[in-house]
Amino acid sequence: xxxxxxxxxxxxxxxxxxxxxxxxxxxxxxxxxxxxxxxxxxxxxxxxxxxxxxxxxxxxxxxxxxxxxxxxxxxxxxxxxxxxxxxxxxxxxxxxxxxxxxxxxxxxxxxxxxxxxxxxxxxxxxxxxxxxxxxxxxxxxxxxxxxxxxxxxxxxxxxxxxxxxxxxxxxxxxxxxxxxxxxxxxxxxxxxxxxxxxxxxxxxxxxxxxxxxxxxxxxxxxxxxxxxxxxxx
Length: 233
Known about the structure:
There is one protein chain. This protein is of the alpha+beta class and 233 residues long. The chain is 44% helix and 24% strand. The chain contains nine helices and twelve strands. It has helices spanning 4-11, 21-29, 85-90, 111-120, 122-148, 151-163, 181-188, 192-204, 220-227, and strands at residues 31-36, 41-43, 52-57, 59-65, 71-78, 82-83, 97-100, 104-109, 167-169, 172-175, 208-211, 214-217. The chain has a four-stranded antiparallel beta sheet. A four-stranded antiparallel beta sheet has the order 2-7-4-5. Strand 9 (167-169) and strand 10 form a beta hairpin. Helix 7 (181-188) packs across helix 8. The termini are far apart.
């Protein structure tokens, strides 16, 4: 039987936030919950499984690799979010690999149960459509960045995205833990050396401060106004 603590974790999932307790308990009953240690691979590219996953605690990374082994990071998502729904809906192999960035707790639901749940609750289906729309918009933004922006501009946009989840004190925003230079490069389709060079350039100009596993944007408004291309704002 689901404990109150487990129900509270499921209640954090955006899709389920409006379900009544009885409906939520039916959802929990159809899921298996497991702990995933940091750096554990949860899904593999081209994996033919089609279950859907809900993050109850922790954080995961969605990524892929080129045929030459170059890593590309699509997104990082945390507690309350969903992944694996594409294969659950279309039955096709996984389009990316998923790895736990930290010790995480995930719930897994069979695709058939997930589809049945969507059929039974139009409001829940509408919330899923909004989630999918948000993911599509995010990918469109990243594609635009890769096509239209140079490496320096892509780094600046990535820092602003990270700042949205940072700690703000007046004009300053601290990003902690900050991704490594390699991880930033994998997010923006560049190389670690280019990221290091451009970050050092931003430090020299007084826009950022670099520390161990943290980055400080000294003045977020100034950073945004001075460095983000006007046509992409």
